[in-house]
Write a structure and sequence with these properties.
homodimer; globular; alpha/beta; 518 residues; 20 helices; seven-stranded mixed sheet
Chain lengths: 518, 518
């Protein structure tokens, strides 16, 4: 006898969603029992919900379709919110199933009762509570559609326990999700963007989403080359194709003064699915946008538009034929470093040694700031990054990417402060024998905050500030932590040791952690 | 020149709040700089926000006054919500300071922008956004008052960065927090409760809050004894005084059938600050309240009333003089277990060996279910537990209790599944040299869910269910994990080894972890 939980699984499967990252609780046991009846659905346990939602983000970015997540009531959702936030900023499709009490138990205000809708809304584009067993399939299809509609987003589907456990008509049909495709760019916007490109100044094409990969990226680079302009990506991005043979895209810098320098001289900023740049934070006496005065901002396409198509239309409007090609200037990898290990030495070795078609999951924060400059000449790879500024996304992203692409090597470039947030991801990597090499930049401090404290005018941090910005006493032993969760690892304190360790890690499959003492 | 952040610190200090659990970010750097100027404020770093809010919960339960927390924007708050939820269910006073963007930066929708109010409200009794620098002190005092008003609760105070960094009039006064005291119980309710006690049936006094300690507890036990009744506590509680010389309080069982058996024959349930019991979850074909049909429910006092005072008034209404005493029957500790280690063997050894005045922070979940029955004869101790059903509260509670009571031994009875959620608390224990002995019940499974899956009618879990309910492959090595964060530990696989290890742990100060393989 099929129940609502079966209808939920069947609707996922009928709509191509066969991967579920989960941390279930009592109210989801019927869903677990239903999943148990569907071996086609692949289930991955996270030992904390931040791992679950972050992995679903990484999975969807690489698989090009959403994963489901399974979360337990309001607190379980709450634990997953930070990485849902990152997913929402990356426009990643994701369907979260949040189990809740049976509807008639809610007025009893039992211990786990919470206002799930209020918690979910800030991080979701679509929140829907299932009304009863007969509503399960339709509500699920709606959630899948809302998550999948361009440019992608986070759906949260609240599953009351009684909707899961009640029987449904076995002949009821399973709903198909339908959603709008990405729209064609507005011809007037294309004309205006073409005029901006032709203005004779120094245009910059700020690319987002699908404009950062494949032919779209190459064509954008060719157009920029032709009109004396540059291409760039926003400060955080869903996915960028990089390395030899791909146009070297620079990212908008995080530091305000650097972002202003980055945009200096730009006369026309042309937005290709991106937003007008704003600073990550506001600071006293600094602007909140790095765009220089007098720079014209013109939008070619909205984020929900077909961005490769918009670039094609722009090319046509500019009278360029389809054969226009990017010149493909080759960047050489920088020379290897020697001696004491520095973040730059790590990044240079990674650039030299990463295998073709690797996926780089980047939450290296301060240690990774020079990665883009250094690695244009690396082997072709995909770069995915924590997109919403909520730390703790990196390890889960790497996990999810590895599950989406089991035949590709995943490199997790991970700051230690953020890595601690969701260290439980290491356990899932070990369990799934995920092909991830985690490189932890172990400096035992929130280096980004030490810089920020200096910005606010504090000279030398005193005891209270140091107690909040450093965690070197005791230092976390990342190799021991990895081993405690079943993942092998090793430590590097010199550039040479790191290089050798990383080289050997590239030659093996399966999870491995390198603690880079920088 | 003082700024808003200074006013915030000064208002905390002027109102007796001198402890801040923190995980700061950029938008809180002015607050960090201000804390750096106030060495009277003690700051404790958590490497994840769930540690921060859970520790503030444990601190306040033992210190009897709130701690402040410092959280970074919406995602930082989100990470702390699960343990704020536990605190709200325990009626723990807590003041969360959540840093946000400068008010004029919010419309730019920078990466970390979120609807903080929507996230905070479900777990807070009071949410307040600071309107500007001159509003800081008043808003802070209001938040302290809201947290402190009986019976205690969670306040969330949103601090825009520009309110923190802008200068304030140095002559402006620092606001004092004022709040209502616990109310005297309604005389009519007292009369009705007295009539229920006298009814000649079998009354049960269901105690909450301050009725579970000191003379109030003893007096309630004496009244129950006199009228042929029992005393009990709710399933989850803020703090209970237990052990030799204290009346043995039983807790409402978690399992529905056991709760129904627990209440069988009770004719009058007298609520002393407690709620009418409801089941933790709803199940098909089971009631959502274990209260037997025909049992009268009478309320002596509201949770926000003066509960010890209400018990005094009840005694007077019952014509009992002030000398009425509880008979104080001594319960002997159960005999030690031998051979393979079981959860019960652990609990028996703990009962025998725990030092006087210990604090037991209990998140042992299934492994700890028999703890109450076994430990009535233990040395006098305080028992605190995760109150809202959101797992991951235990280790942070233990940390906070140890910081509130540095002269008392803290025992953390910790299930492994929940312990993984906030394992970062071990690092804070090591850093603060907190006098905590963590006992991890390592069974590598969500045992509570295995039971629940059986309840829903699944016989033998298949692959998908096992992949979501067991985490034994690989098993977490808790000793290695503790050592990775600077905490010493050891493993026990027999009752004898555990007994010896625990005995030796009781003889030393400072953090120590025992992995009990059960």
């Amino acid at each position: 006898m099929a129940n609502g939980a079966d209808a939920l699984c069947d609707t996922f499967l009928a709509n191509g969603i066969d991967t579920c990252f989960a941390n279930p609780g009592t109210s989801e046991m019927h869903f677990v029992a239903a999943l148990d009846r569907k071996p086609q659905m692949r289930c991955f346990l996270g030992l904390f919900e931040g791992v679950v939602t972050g992995a679903a983000d990484g999975y969807a970015r690489m698989a090009g379709k959403p994963a489901a997540t399974l979360l337990h009531t309001g607190p379980g959702l709450a634990n997953g919110l930070a990485n849902m936030h990152n997913a929402r900023r990356a426009f990643t499709p994701m369907v979260n199933v949040v189990g809740d009490h049976a509807h008639y138990h809610l007025p009893n205000d039992a211990a786990l009762t919470t206002d799930i809708e209020s918690l979910a809304r800030p991080m979701s584009r679509h929140v829907r509570r299932i009304a009863g067993p007969e509503d399960v399939s339709r509500a699920t299809a709606e959630s899948i559609a809302a998550a999948s509609a361009a440019p992608g987003g986070v759906s949260t589907l609240i599953l009351p326990a009684d909707a899961a456990w009640s029987t449904v008509d076995p002949d009821a049909s399973i709903a198909k999700a339908e959603w709008r495709a990405a729209a064609e760019a507005d011809p007037q916007m294309v004309e205006r963007a073409a005029a901006a490109a032709r203005s004779g100044g120094k245009p910059m094409f700020l690319l987002a989403g699908d404009a950062l990969s494949g032919n779209a990226l190459k064509k954008a680079a060719a157009i920029a080359e032709r009109f004396g302009g540059r291409i760039a990506a926003e400060q955080t991005n869903r996915r960028i194709e990089r390395g030899v043979g791909r146009p070297p895209v620079e990212r908008m810098p995080y530091v305000v003064e650097q972002a202003m320098a980055f945009l200096e001289g730009v006369t026309d900023l042309i937005l290709v699915g991106s937003k007008t740049p704003v600073t990550f934070f506001a600071y006293p006496n600094l602007p909140t946008s790095p765009v220089p005065p007098g720079c014209r901002v013109t939008r070619l396409a909205e984020r929900s538009d077909d961005l490769p198509g918009a670039i094609d239309l722009l090319g046509q409007a500019l009278g360029l034929n389809d054969e226009i090609g990017w010149s493909g200037a080759r960047t050489e990898p920088p020379p290897l470093r020697h001696g004491d290990l520095t973040a730059e030495a790590v990044l240079v070795s990674v650039t030299h040694l990463m295998p073709e078609n690797a996926i780089v999951a980047d939450e290296a924060v301060t240690s990774g700031r020079s990665f883009f400059k250094l690695s244009h000449g690396a082997a072709p790879h995909d770069h995915i990054q924590v997109a919403g500024g909520a730390i703790g996304g990196g390890l889960p992203l790497a996990l999810g990417a590895a599950i989406a692409c089991p035949d590709r090597k995943v490199l997790s470039l991970q700051a230690d402060g953020s890595g601690m947030y969701t260290n439980q991801a290491l356990w899932s990597m070990a369990r799934e024998n995920a092909d991830v090499c985690v490189v932890v930049f172990a400096n035992s401090r929130y280096a980004i905050l030490q810089g920020e404290l200096k910005n606010v005018g504090a000279d030398e941090p005193g005891e209270n500030a140091n107690r909040m910005l450093r965690f070197d006493s005791p230092a976390v032993d990342w190799v021991a932590m990895a081993k405690s969760m079943g993942m092998d690892g090793a430590r590097a304190e010199t550039a040479e040791t790191f290089h050798d360790l990383f080289k050997s890690a590239m030659g093996r499959r399966g999870p491995f952690l390198i603690e880079a003492c920088v």
